[in-house]
Design a protein that fits this description.
This protein is of the alpha+beta class. The chain has 7 helices and 6 strands, in the order ααααββββαααββ. The protein is globular.
Length: 212
C-alpha cells in the first residue's frame, strides 16, 4: 500500500497502537491471573528467570529472554486468545475437506479461536491452565492451526515477535523478585461479554509480596 498523506501515516500509527496495546496488556493480565492461581507454575517461572538472569550477570537480555523456554510455555499456555475470532473473505469457492459444505466465493468467514483453543478433542480438559501442553514435543503433535493467538497466514499479526518479547520482558521484571497471589475479590474471574477483545469482566486484583 502506498502512503500518501499525513492522515494515512497517523492512521497506521493509530492501528499499531490499538492493535499492540490492549492485546499485550490483556495477555499479561490473564497470564498473571493464571499464575497467581497456580503457584507452582509461578515459582517455576521465577526459578527459570533467576537462573538465566544470573547467567547474564544479573541483566535481562534478549538472549536470556530467548532461553526462558518454560516462560514461553506459560505464555503459550494461556487459555485466552485476546482476538477471539479471525476474519477472512473467501477468494474462491472452497469445499471443506471431509464435509458436505462449500464456502462460496466472497463469503465472510469468522474463525473462532476461543472455540479452537477450548476444543476438548484438541486440548483434553481445556479449562486447565497447563503450560506442559506447550512443550516443543507436545506442540509438534498437534495441527499447526490448533493454536493461533496471533492468527495465521499472510495476515498473521505483524507485531507478534514484538508482542511476545515485550510481554516476556514484563514477566521477567515483575516475577524475578515478587510473588503474586489473587486478591479475594478476584478469585473467580469472569470474561467480559460485550468487549470486542477478550477481557476480564472486572478488575484482576493481585497481592504482591517481595521474595528473597
Ligand atoms: C500479545 C499480543 C498480541 C496479540 C495476541 C495479537 C493478535 C493479533 C491477531 C490475532 C491478529 C489478526 C491476525 C489474522 O487475522 O490472522 C493481529 C493483527 C495485527 N496485529 Fe497483533 N497481536 C498482538 C500484539 C501486537 C503488537 C505489539 C502490534 C504492533 C506493534 C500488533 C499489530 C498488529 C497489526 C498491525 C495487525 C494487522 C495485520 C494485518 O492485517 O496485516 N499486534 N494481531
Amino acid at each position: 500500500m502506498e502512503i500518501h498523506s499525513f492522515n494515512e501515516i497517523a492512521a497506521q500509527a493509530f492501528v499499531f497502537f490499538i492493535a499492540g496495546f490492549e492485546t499485550s496488556s490483556s495477555t499479561m493480565t490473564f497470564a498473571f491471573y493464571e499464575m497467581a492461581k497456580n503457584q507452582e507454575v509461578l515459582d517455576k517461572v521465577r526459578e527459570e528467570i533467576r537462573r538465566v538472569v544470573a547467567k547474564y550477570d544479573g541483566k535481562i537480555t534478549y538472549d536470556g529472554i530467548m532461553e526462558m523456554t518454560y516462560m514461553s510455555q506459560v505464555f503459550d499456555g494461556w487459555k485466552y486468545p485476546i482476538v477471539a475470532t479471525l476474519q477472512r473473505i473467501t477468494t474462491k469457492d472452497y469445499k471443506l475437506p471431509g464435509e458436505d459444505v462449500v464456502l462460496k466465493k466472497s463469503s465472510k468467514i469468522m474463525i473462532s479461536l476461543q472455540g479452537i483453543h477450548h476444543d476438548p478433542e484438541i486440548y483434553p480438559n481445556p479449562e486447565k491452565f497447563d503450560p506442559d501442553r506447550f512443550t516443543p514435543e507436545n506442540k509438534e503433535q498437534r495441527h499447526a492451526c490448533a493454536y493461533m493467538p496471533f492468527g495465521e497466514g499472510p495476515r498473521i499479526c505483524i507485531g507478534m515477535r514484538f508482542g511476545i518479547m515485550q510481554a516476556k520482558i514484563g514477566m521477567a521484571i515483575m516475577l524475578k523478585d515478587y510473588k503474586y497471589t489473587l486478591h479475594p475479590d478476584s478469585r473467580d474471574m469472569k470474561l467480559h461479554n460485550k468487549s470486542i477483545l477478550l477481557a476480564p469482566a472486572g478488575k484482576v486484583l493481585l497481592n504482591i509480596e517481595k521474595v528473597d
